[in-house]
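Minutes, project check-in
Item: structure for the 266-residue chain
Input as provided by the requester:
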Amino acid sequence: MTRIRRPWASAVVRPWTTLPGGATLESPLGTTARCVFVCTVLLAGRATAQDSTSVPVWKDAAIGGAFFAAAAAVSPFDSRLAVASQHVSLQRSTFLRDGANGFDAVGVPGTFVLALGFYAGGWLARDRGIATLGLHGGEALAASAVVTELLGGISGRARPSVDIHHSGTFQFAEGFRSDAHASFPSEHATAAFAMASVLAAESARRWPHASRWITPVAYTVASLVGVARVYKNEHWASDVLAGAGIGTATGLLAVQYRPDQILLPR
């Protein structure tokens, strides 16, 4: 049976195309529908937001670009790194397998649950700072999810699990039809770095003393999410770096907007 792709989207809307023999295949129309849905939610929040130009947008774009440059530099070594990560001594380790599964869950759906928890908790506690953190986290996750969904579908890059010795297999739009060809970029890494960048920026702004440990912990966890995806043979190293760039850039962009008062507790 064809593996279902994009776990975050399954909780939103799931139009499928049924194949002979009972297999399921995600249709390009279904992917487009999910993207439109998430964009609508994102734009609805932005429609009531007030722009805050405290940090030049080009700097955020430059950070994302730096990650993509790193991904390009690493890409020639993707196969070597993938083979090394699948060494029998590493794969036999129960500690590493359990850790990888745990950080995998932290990336998706953990980041989405965390953002929702912050937002709901902020409302319950009447804490505008916590609610804002959750709202910005949700916006960053939604925006970055749209980008990774489209790039993954269009690029059609084969996962290392397809052929670990050939990292340069790209087939235009194949990612919309097969999860096995939706490797670039890593959605889990994207989500993890989107949430980490929001946590780092919001804590530095609102709780500067706490940010001294929140920021390194957040980015360390996000990095381990990316390592877990390589360890599980789901992504190439360059997929993770590209996802980290997308997530970081969207997170830093999200925190530059001040939400309208109606979206926050009084």
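Outcome recorded: The chain has nine helices and four strands.
No further action items on this chain.
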